Amino acid sequence: MEPLFLIHVFFRALIQCKMTDRMVAAAKEYRFIVAGGDRRNDCLLEALKTDGFRAGLYRPGQPYGAAEGNVFLFAPAETLDRTRVERIGAASVVFCFGLTAEAAALLAEKNCRVHRYLDDEALAHKNAALTAEGALALVIRHTETALKDTRILILGGGRVGKACAILLSRNRCRVTLASRDANEVSQGVLFAGETAELGAALASLSRYDAVVNTIPQIYVKGETLARVKKHCYLLDLASKPGGIDLSEAQGLGLVAEAAPGLPGKCAPRTAAIAIKESVLTILSGQV
Known about the structure:
Elements: H1 2-27, E1 31-35, H2 39-50, E2 54-58, E3 70-74, E4 79-80, H3 82-85, E5 93-96, E6 98-99, H4 101-109, E7 113-116, H5 121-142, E8 151-155, H6 159-170, E9 174-179, H7 182-187, E10 194-197, H8 198-203, E11 210-213, H9 222-226, E12 233-236, H10 246-251, E13 255-258, H11 262-266, H12 268-283
Parallel strand pairs: 1-2, 1-3, 3-5, 4-6, 5-7, 8-9, 8-11, 9-10, 11-12, 12-13
Helix pairs in contact: 2-12, 5-6, 5-12
């Protein structure tokens, strides 16, 4: 059995190498323009150049250049408006987090292809895992108890909520996952020690040493916020408008913050490699 297994592993690796070679060859025809952003975009530019691709960095205030057929890699947390895409040449490829209807219409007129980063499930899961690592680091920094004694409420059971529940639970935190979605609550038993319906969880906020929100709707405010313990750390990971009234929380003397783009802050090089692999896969037609 062992020789057969080794042969299987060898041919699998050979096929993977050939697929990678095809992906790289297909992408070599493009010129990559990395359009600013955080540290992960700097790492992305470096990784592309190291692999022999034609790549340059765009900074705000500089012209893109009107050449056709470029690949634009915008910041992973940026939503593009019309002004950000006006100077993009025809038949280009645009990778972004999101874009307005006006920007999408203009790019369609130019016959540009648009890919949203998180439409790639593999990249979305890697991004969620890196976000969870950043959240763990922030929880350690801002709570006053050992992890095994820290009660943490996670609001939302999507990709990021699940990733946070898994990592925090593995680090012995006492995790409750709450959601307004009944399916997420039922699945939450696989990732957290406890689960709760969102309303019930918000009614018992005084139990927790930290609250990690992933729902883009403000629930933690007013009377609900008044239930939070004075030493409780509030972390909002959701996209705008977020789920925690940060100004009200800070006015009450609570430690509360939004932390968008955590992968670019806690693991920019790993995040950049994940983006590069996703982009090359899409350009090669594998996705």
